[in-house]
Hints:
The protein is of the alpha+beta class. It has 2 domains: 41 residues, Arc Repressor Mutant, subunit A (Orthogonal Bundle); 75 residues, Lrp/AsnC effector binding domain/regulation of amino acid metabolism (RAM) domain (Alpha-Beta Plaits, 2-Layer Sandwich). Helices cover 36% and strands 20% of the residues. The chain is built from 5 helices and 4 strands, in the order H-H-H-E-H-E-E-H-E. Strands 2-3-1-4 form a 4-stranded antiparallel beta sheet. The chain is elongated. The two termini are 14 Å apart. The mean pLDDT is 90.
Amino acid sequence: MIELDDIDRKIIRALLRDAGQSTGALGRRLGLSQPATWRRIRKLEHAGVLRGRRLRLNAERLGFGVTVFLGVKLATKGRVSLEDFERAVSAIPEVQQVEHVLGLYDYRLRVVARDLPDFERVLRRRIMTLPGAGQVEANVLLSEERLPGPL
């Protein structure tokens, strides 16, 4: 675990809001020079605190108006390997996130679709035909709010 000071925390919070901002602009807002800001960000990256910067797409604006979280329990018959299931489900373009979880289900998937009939098609033709797919539970996303996290 790395020790974070107040400036490190401010940098992390600012990058969570806008990861694409320049180190110069970020430094000016925090009262640091661009090189000092860059060094601190590099330190956080090397320590593994920052693991890259991602672009977040607005799925709805791209025509994918439905997001569904699927709980998937693997069938016990055949004992398909977790790796085989993960590889197969990751190849489905509508599956945006695959999480191996502990609990009632083995996996939690984030699936996007154009509408509910499109989701049904993805579920029936792609997800339920995967090796080892068993019981599923679907939860349709109604709204989403991003929270900044513990810092």
